Please model this.
Amino acid sequence: MKSNVILEFQGNQVAVKDIVEMAKKTWKDSGNKVSDLKDMRLYVKPEENAIYYVFNDSVDGRLSL
Model:
């Protein structure tokens, strides 16, 4: 089955797969290997225009949506 989840808020649209890719890029841009990313939790808060992430239960931060 093929699926595409789109998050809509305040007249904006973003695909969930793009959010996941943004988070992976953040991990990689921090000097880490994608293969070392074992667990990723993303919390999308459209009202704050933010994505909060937790990588491997130890690295956390915020991205702009």
About this structure: The chain has one domain: 6-64. The two ends are 27 Å apart (CA to CA). Residues 6-64 form one domain.
